[in-house]
Structures are given as structure tokens and as C-alpha cells.
């Protein structure tokens, strides 16, 4: 199962989708508050998943719903708001880079809490990838001294949240289909997201052209960047190890920088070295 070549295709697809998510968040924040953006992202995704997978809810055993609820909290509900608030003060590329702490958190939490078995090769890969992240963070801090880097703690918290989710899914939900897990997660989150949106003052700005334009970006983010991506991600967890699945966060900054280049940003030599180091880390962490 671990040598299944499908995992590499899924990893590449997730890298492209989630690497593009940060620019969509940036565009969404033009006309939406962080609470509105996070809520709409969940709502759009929930509607999409109910259309394609509502029947899968009945396939979730009653005993599994507690894990569905917890993975919904750590895997989506908390991170969508944390990332939205973080990007009000830091660049989308910096946010994508810091998200790369997820594999290290996955390994540490998996080993300490979930008795995850790993090899020295995986630990080496995580550390190599982390070194690449540090290079990119240092370069970002040097080039953007005016940013409020206290907001990076929100992304770190999201990375920890993702790591908890990955280990929970692998340990307790591996017997469920990816679509069942995804539909179940968003069935749990829909009402809380609607409540947050209601109290966010969204009704006062919903009619403006700027808000509607931002909603278009978040609709794409919700359906593709969250709905489709979650299904792919849960499938990746099923056919690989938690550490390999979390290594997608090492590739996300590379895609995010690609969007930056198309947006007339420049890629420095330090960033190229950091990206290459990250790719090396993914290679070494690929085995169980």
C-alpha cells in the first residue's frame, strides 16, 4: 500500500489546489472580514459536498460521529478562521510557508500521543524540509520588515491543528470513505458557520459589488480548495502514512510562490534554495 504510485499524483494535485488557496484568501479579504470569509468557505463547501455525497452520511456508524466532530474542528473549522485572520497582517506566501510546519507537528504529535511508528529517514526528511522553511521565512522577514509577525502564531496554531486532524483520521477513520468523512465534517460545521456569518454583519455588506466579487473567489476556494481537496486528502491519508500526507504542506509554498511570480513578485536565490530543500525533505519523508 505504501508503494502505491497513486499517492504521488494525489500529492501533486493537493499541492496545486492548496498552493492556490492562499491567493484566493487574499482576494477574498478585499471585500470580506476574516469571520465572513471563513464562514462562507465552510458553507460553500458544505453545499457542494451535500450535493455529491449526502447519502454517505448514513454510512457513518454512530460510534464514529464523535471523531467526525473532532476532526471537523481541528481539520477545518479552526484553521479556516486562523488563516483568514493571519493574512490580514502577513503575506499569503509567508502564510503558506509557515503551514509547512505541519509534517513536523504530525510526527511529534503522532509519536507522543498516537504511538505513530516512523523511521529515521522520515525524521531526516522532516528536518530537511523544516530547514527549507526556515530559509524561506528568513527571506520573507528580511524583504517585508513592516509585517506583523505575531500573526504568524495563528498559522503555527493552524499547523498544529492540522497535525492533530491527520493523526485522528489515520487512527480512527481509516475505515470510512473519504467522501463520508468530508460530508460528515461539513454536516457538523454548517450550523456553527451559519451562526458566525449571521453575527458577522454580513447582511449589511452582502449587496456591494466588492463583497460579491470576493464571494466568487471564496466559492472557488470552498468548492475546490476545501471540498474537492479534502476528499483527495483523506484518500491520501488512507493509502500512505500520516507524515507523507502532511508533506503536501512542503510543496504548497512552491505553488504559492509561483502565483507570486505571476503577480509580478520576484523569486530570490534564497527562495529557490529553500524550495529545493523542501522538495528534498518530501523525498526523504515519503516512506513509512
Please tell me about this protein's structure.
The protein is mainly α and 288 residues long. The mean pLDDT is 83. The N and C termini lie close together (10 Å). The protein is built from 13 helices and no strands. It is globular, with a radius of gyration of 18 Å. The longest helix is centred in the last third of the chain and has 31 residues, at 209-239. It has helices at 6-28, 34-53, 65-86, 92-98, 102-112, 120-143, 152-172, 178-198, 202-205, 209-239, 242-246, 248-262, 269-284.
Name its key features.
single chain; 288 residues; mainly alpha; 13 helices; 76% helix; globular
Mind sketching the topology for me?
Blueprint: H1 6-28, H2 34-53, H3 65-86, H4 92-98, H5 102-112, H6 120-143, H7 152-172, H8 178-198, H9 202-205, H10 209-239, H11 242-246, H12 248-262, H13 269-284
Helix pairs in contact: 1-4, 1-10, 1-12, 2-3, 2-8, 2-10, 3-7, 3-8, 4-6, 4-12, 5-7, 6-13, 8-10, 12-13
Number of strands: 0
Distance between the termini: 10 Å
- Quick one: overall form? globular
Helix fraction by DSSP (H/I, runs of at least 4) = over 70%
Mean pLDDT: 83
Supply the helix-strand structural class.
Answer: mainly alpha
Amino acid at each position: 500500500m505504501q508503494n502505491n504510485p497513486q499517492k504521488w499524483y494525489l500529492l501533486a494535485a493537493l499541492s496545486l489546489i492548496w498552493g492556490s488557496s492562499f491567493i484566493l484568501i487574499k482576494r477574498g479579504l478585499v471585500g470580506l472580514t476574516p469571520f465572513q470569509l471563513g464562514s462562507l468557505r465552510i458553507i460553500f463547501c458544505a453545499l457542494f459536498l451535500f450535493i455529491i455525497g449526502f447519502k454517505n452520511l448514513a454510512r457513518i456508524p454512530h460510534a464514529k460521529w464523535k471523531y467526525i466532530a473532532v476532526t471537523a474542528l481541528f481539520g477545518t473549522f479552526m484553521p479556516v478562521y486562523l488563516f483568514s485572520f493571519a493574512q490580514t497582517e502577513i503575506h499569503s506566501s509567508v502564510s503558506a510557508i509557515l503551514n509547512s510546519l505541519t509534517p513536523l507537528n504530525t510526527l511529534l504529535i503522532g509519536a507522543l500521543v498516537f504511538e505513530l511508528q516512523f523511521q529515521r529517514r522520515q525524521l531526516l526528511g522532516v528536518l530537511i524540509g523544516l530547514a527549507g522553511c526556515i530559509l524561506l521565512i528568513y527571506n520573507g522577514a528580511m524583504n517585508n520588515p513592516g509585517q506583523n509577525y505575531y500573526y504568524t502564531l495563528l498559522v503555527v496554531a493552524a499547523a498544529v491543528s492540522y497535525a492533530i486532524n491527520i493523526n485522528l483520521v489515520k487512527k480512527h477513520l481509516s475505515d470510512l470513505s473519504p467522501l463520508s468523512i468530508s460530508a460528515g465534517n461539513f454536516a457538523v460545521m454548517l450550523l456553527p458557520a451559519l451562526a458566525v456569518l449571521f453575527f458577522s454583519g454580513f447582511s449589511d455588506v452582502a449587496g456591494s459589488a466588492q463583497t460579491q466579487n470576493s464571494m466568487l473567489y471564496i466559492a472557488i476556494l470552498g468548492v475546490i480548495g476545501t471540498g474537492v481537496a479534502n476528499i483527495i486528502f483523506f484518500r491520501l491519508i488512507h493509502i500512505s502514512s500520516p507524515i507523507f500526507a502532511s508533506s503536501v504542506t512542503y510543496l504548497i509554498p512552491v505553488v504559492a510562490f509561483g502565483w507570486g511570480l505571476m503577480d509580478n513578485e520576484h523569486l530570490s536565490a534564497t527562495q529557490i534554495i529553500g524550495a529545493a530543500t523542501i522538495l528534498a525533505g518530501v523525498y526523504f519523508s515519503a516512506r513509512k
